[in-house]
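Q: My collaborator sent me two sequences in one message, no labels, and asked for predicted structures for both. Can we handle them in order? The first one she listed is below.
A: Yes, handling them in the order given. First sequence, followed by its structure tokens:
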Amino acid sequence: MFFWVLALLIFCGFVWNYKRQLKIADITDKYIFITGCDTGFGNLAARTFDKKGFHVIAACLTESKSTALKAETSERLHTMLLDVTDPENVKRTAQWVKNQVGEKGLWGLINNAGVLGVLAPTDWLTVEDYREPIEVNLFGLIDVTLNLLPLVKKAQGRVINVSSIGGRLALGGGGYTLSKYALEGFNDSLRRDMKAFGVHVSCIEPGLFKTGLSDPIKATEKKLAIWKHLSPDIKQQYGEGYIEKSLDKLKDTNSFVNMDLSLVVECMDHALTSLFPKTHYAAGRDAKTFWIPLSHMPAVLQDFLLLKQKVELANPKAV
């Protein structure tokens, strides 16, 4: 009996793996739209999919980055300036894309644009500190999706949302984690709503990667700017050396940081071209082996492991 069960499991695993390797027939007539192509994952994705033969429409925030990307790619690739937090800009962009793709529709929408915002203890922050990452990472993404969704439905294409392990575990205070948790909910509801239309929706959850988004110098500068305006009570509770100690703790996680951005682009590629794309992709060894498994663990274990990375406060009773 055990032998037959084992044989069935091996057979199912073989079939499952075979299905995952099946690809769509032709990509040279397909259009994809990618946000956040100035740097990082989006920039690499635009260049990669252009080389593969897709008609790439790459949205950048700055003209200089847009010009640089266009200079490095083929005539098929078009660049556009897009601020996802500007509704009128989003509407104009969607209309331009509609005119460009015509009756073929839009095969792929990759929502990659995002900002980190301020990462700091919650009691350091104001509601304004939460707004930017939520406006960009959540409302901007939703606005772009809703405006381009009719074109994706026409092509029976793909929507790919770039989330984060921060959408599974709250690693620090600030709007970034909130925006990614909400993005996961939007992704799940969209996936179920679009199934009847033949549209596949996938979510990519990268671990820690070395990109401009995760620049520790910029993050520290933002923390220092907030520290200057904190009340004397909070400064006494945390201690004058808190930020420096936090940086030292951050160095302990360097072994988790992935340097190869193509790991995320490979997930995008599979979600775009597989006949059977996954609903969720974990990108990076740290995401697969630590963060995602930890997100399924009891809260008491999560708290124990994550709090070990926190700096001990100087005087938490000084309230």
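Q: And the one she listed second?
A: Here it is, processed independently of the first:
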Amino acid sequence: MASVSPLIAVVLLSMVQLSMGSRRLMELYIPPESDRLTYHHGSVLSGDIPVSILWYGNFSPTQRSIIANFVVSLTGAPNAATPSVGQWWDTIEQLYLSNAATTNGQTATRVLLDEQVSDDQCSLGKSLTLAQIDQLAARVATKKGGVALVFTDEDVTVEGFCSSRCGKHGSDAAAGTTHIWVGNSAKQCPGQCAWPFAQPVYGPQGAPLVAPNGDAGVDGMVMVLASMVAGTVTNPYGDGFYQGPQDAPLEACSACPGVYGSGAYPGNAGKLLVDATTGASYNANGANGRKYLLPALYNPATSSCDTLV
């Protein structure tokens, strides 16, 4: 995998320099060891991880297939072309899970797609609090050590969605279960939660890239889901791998914001693969011929962001 140095602190250029069109490499502040993303000797998820899904609102069969195929691709598509979703997952295994004390020598982790249920009528309404997201997650019969995924459609608003988050992961340590919520931002904030497949709201402006599955909202959901999955398995109960305060941590992917390929910089996702037929940008192949764009993973050993391409 390629590596990209994370942008830890940015030195702003003067307006004169900007008007001249000059671009300098951003200076980096290398934090002390105590401030870096490290293992806090707590739990990670390992062994077999059953994953259940609750679809809240209207999702087409194609949209469901895009997301479900990503979940399957994590450990269940060994014959996918390279670079692959499986290779991305293997990096999580190598950098994080294999170095955690709680794996107890277990065999390689397997992500197993389990039950899928639907709430097409939005029984709790179309404006949800985070507490209601927790309620929805509890509806899915998640087994111990498993993950419940809650997906809300493009017409459902969720507390903090777009303004402060694109998704969230949580847990019930007593029950040994975790959950992830991700919303479809297509109508509400694609520039914030589906970039680089939509025009960014802030920062450097560039033409949006073509989404690999032809649905910017759902392809954006996969990017967010990938980040949440990485955070969930490496820091499920808040005492695993993270950087910064425990209640607002940077995790395996969130420590590398906006980095998808080598050479990434603000406003540019980095060097990516381009489908010769559709012109879509991606960096990972998955099950059933699907292609995805997955975020970089922070490498604690090198203090850099590892990318698939």
